[in-house]
Amino acid sequence: PQSRGWLIALFWIIFNLGGVAGGLLQFALNYTNQGASASPASYFAFVAAMLLGALVAPCVLAPPASVVREDGTSVSFEQAASPWEELTAALQAVGDPFVKRNLLFFLASNWFYTYNFSGFNASQFNMRTRGLNSALFWGAQMLAAWLFGAMMDLPVPPLERARRGAALVVA
């Protein structure tokens, strides 16, 4: 509980690292491109990066049985009996009242990316600057996650933490 903010921030930083890397890759590969569309090399580079990630990920992930928490307890990991059982459990989770209440928020939280990156960026920037814009956008999310995570872990009363969080949002 005392490091929950940092762990959420770490997840968000890792999650957005792909966007930063993709934006920088697009920026570098299209540095001399003044046109509105990406070079063919961009597509090959993205496919190569995804294949590399798919091959490297199993090599660097720790087996769940070897993960130990800070308090010394092991992480329990339930193996699904079959893909069908896993699908059934996922569908049951969608039926949970909490998920039903928040489904519109879940959908709305990512809806605007299409308009940000395809509508606004495409009309305002060329291919090179779109890559840089994308890298800076995701980098800003990483910085914000770090700031909010650090603030959430401060040893202050919850009301004071809420005030600081609201001030950070407004700033």
Automatic annotation (TrEMBL):
InterPro entries: MFS_trans_sf (IPR036259), UNC-93-like_regulator (IPR051617). The keyword Transmembrane applies. Its main location: membrane. It is a multi-pass membrane protein. Coiled coil: none annotated. Keywords: Membrane, Transmembrane, Transmembrane helix. This is MFS transporter.
